[in-house]
Design brief:
heterodimer; A: 499 residues; mainly alpha; two-stranded antiparallel sheet; 21 helices; B: 99 residues; 3 helices; elongated
């Protein structure tokens, strides 16, 4: 121990590349400004916070664009914080998703009974954690990023303080989340013990090699299980339906898309940079998670009556599809990452779209039951068409975005050319067919059923921010399906440069 | 260097913590069990740090302690919210939503 003391005495501040951390600093600054506006202007500030947050998020995109134009891979703190193509694509996605969530929240939160400024502050804090996660190549940075994105999310899920359902959503999410992160930390402590360093590159060196040291296996399993909770993979999905149903719907959209994507970002980094030499450990584990999530998510989704719970189980099933390429990552290397990122980007567009429709329709029906969508076509034809587009896109029907996402996954698992890969492809194909049933059921309800007696069927008015969100997500879903080169342009090639 | 004994202590604390989370029905006791797991992690980190002659283990442990404080703050707030609305922190009764 003592031998390391002189090294501390001679501490010099590591070089900081301010350009590389500009997106994070911008988000931090916007969060501070939103909080200040709340403190200084009090009630008068309520009118500005939503717009301020949205503008701030768009400003944070500027340094990402300049970093992408610059094109260099930037490393800081001995490789603990890396800005490469992988990080930039995902940072941009997180910020755009957060912008759409702000659009979804504007009226929902303003018309609720609770003070709204903290809402946007917490949202920005969670986004900061996600953006940081995309660059984290070190266990400590990953852990801090994970907590920075989770802790505000626990509060957001329990946002409606007086509503027992929202309390329950927050409590379940919190307990399962903290438990999972504690288990993940125990795994991280074992990996740190093996490597004597927290950087993924050092861990990769320490855990590689064929010996079946139980500490290596335990460490890898615990860390992956910790993140499997975040992506709501079976059997760690039990929090998702209750939290999604009880939380405010814009928060649900945020959890279902951004929080899930952040879990995949961490998994991709771990699998690709952390333990690439141990595919004998992580591949079977991820195979089980992928198959379990696809199948269990689909089968339980078939008998859901609430649209938000349906989306929760559909999200579990979609998580299985996103895990599938990672389960063969040892055989196909970087192409697994391309497939997962493609899927995550398309999934973000179509899933946010579904939640935008759910929020818009709930303004009229104040209900989450699938039966309340009966006769929607009569009074909200535009909404019906959009919802059908998103639903069939989730099911993977061409030419909507979802088909290309599924195609990328199938291509990746078949390319592995192993029994694991082909069995995954077969199970995924069966599940794609099962999924069509419950997505089509919602569509049938909207198009062919009649609205219940006495229901208000004057045409539905939708506030402009929701229209903007619907336009953005709908256009993205169609564009990604008809012209997938928009996505492959960014996702093909070497995304994470290994040292 | 008593690395094995330290790791054993960590593993025992971890197991007690996991048992507590799964078996206890009182919200506050579950929070305390989670703290036990996090302290098992800290013991591991510091023992491994000393074993490798590096301060990184201690730095990681400091991060864990700080974040755990924030987590428990939030957890107690949520449990308090629950108590205000239902006059009970029995987790078995928190079952409005099912399926």
């Amino acid at each position: 121990m003592l031998s390391s003391v002189p090294a501390i005495a001679g501490f010099v501040r590591p070089d900081i590349d301010w350009h590389a951390v500009a997106p994070e600093l911008t988000l931090l600054g916007v969060g501070a400004v939103v909080t200040l506006v709340d403190i200084v202007l009090l009630e008068r500030g309520r009118a500005y916070t939503s717009a301020l947050t949205g503008i701030g998020l768009l400003v944070a995109l500027i340094p990402i664009v300049t970093l992408a134009a610059d094109g260099n891979t930037r490393e800081m703190f001995g490789g603990a914080f890396v800005v490469d193509d992988f990080a930039l694509i995902l940072k941009a996605m997180f910020i755009v998703v957060a912008y759409v969530v702000v659009l979804l929240s504007t009226n929902y939160i303003a018309e609720g009974d609770y003070w709204e400024n903290e809402y946007y502050g917490l949202l920005l804090s969670a986004v900061l954690g996600m953006v940081l996660m995309a660059s984290a190549r070190d266990l400590i940075t990953m852990f801090v990023a994970l907590e920075l994105l989770s802790i505000p999310a626990y509060l957001l899920a329990a946002w409606r303080k007086g509503d027992p359902k929202s309390n329950e959503a927050g409590l379940k999410y919190y307990l399962m989340g903290v438990f999972a992160s504690a288990i993940m930390l125990y795994g991280m402590s074992l990996l740190f013990g093996l490597a004597g360093d927290t950087r993924l590159a050092a861990i990769s060196d320490a855990v590689s090699g064929g010996d079946s040291n139980p500490v290596v296996i335990l460490g890898i399993i615990f860390v992956i299980v910790g993140f499997a909770f975040k992506v709501s993979g079976f059997p760690f999905h039990t929090w998702a339906p209750d939290t999604y149903e009880g939380a405010p719907t814009p928060v649900t959209a945020f959890l279902a898309v951004a929080s899930k994507a952040a879990g995949f970002v961490a998994l991709m980094q771990l699998v690709h940079a952390g333990f690439p030499g141990r595919d004998d450990v992580y591949q079977p584990l991820l195979w089980i998670l992928a198959v379990g999530s696809m199948t269990a998510g689909n089968l339980i989704a078939l008998r859901q009556e609430n649209i938000v719970r349906l989306m929760a189980y559909s999200g579990v099933s979609q998580a299985g599809f996103m895990l599938a390429p990672l389960a063969v990552a040892g055989d196909i290397g970087g192409e697994a990452l391309s497939a997962v990122i493609t899927y995550v980007l398309i999934y973000a567009a179509m899933n946010l779209g579904v939640f935008a429709v759910i929020i818009a329709v709930a303004r009229r029906t104040a209900s989450g039951e699938i039966s309340s969508y009966a006769g929607l076509f009569k009074y909200a034809p535009g909404m019906t068409i959009l919802m059908s587009v998103f639903m069939f896109s989730l099911a993977g029907i061409p030419p909507l975005g979802g088909w290309f996402a599924k195609f990328a996954v199938f291509r990746a698992v078949v390319e592995a050319d192993t029994g694991w890969g082909y069995s995954l492809a077969a199970i995924a194909a069966v599940n794609s067919v099962i999924a069509l049933f419950y997505y089509a059921r919602v569509a049938r309800m909207m198009w062919f059923e009649n609205a219940p007696e006495g229901a208000d069927t004057t045409s539905l008015r939708v506030p402009p921010s929701l229209v903007a969100a619907l336009g953005l997500t709908g256009a993205a879903t169609l564009l990604f399906g008809i012209y997938p080169a928009v996505i492959t342009h960014f996702t093909d090639g070497t995304l994470i440069a290994l040292p | 260097m008593l690395l094995n004994e330290m790791l054993l202590l960590g593993a025992v604390l971890f197991c007690i913590g996991v048992y507590g989370v799964l078996a206890r029905r009182n919200g506050v006791l579950v929070l305390m069990s989670i703290e036990l797991i996090l302290n098992a992690v800290n013991i591991n980190l510091i023992a491994f740090g000393a074993f490798h002659h590096t301060v990184i283990g201690q730095i990681f442990a400091l991060f864990v302690i700080t974040v755990a404080a924030a987590e428990v703050g939030i957890g107690l707030a949520i449990v308090l919210l629950l108590y205000r609305n239902r006059r009970s922190i029995d987790l078995e009764q928190v079952d409005l939503m099912k399926g």
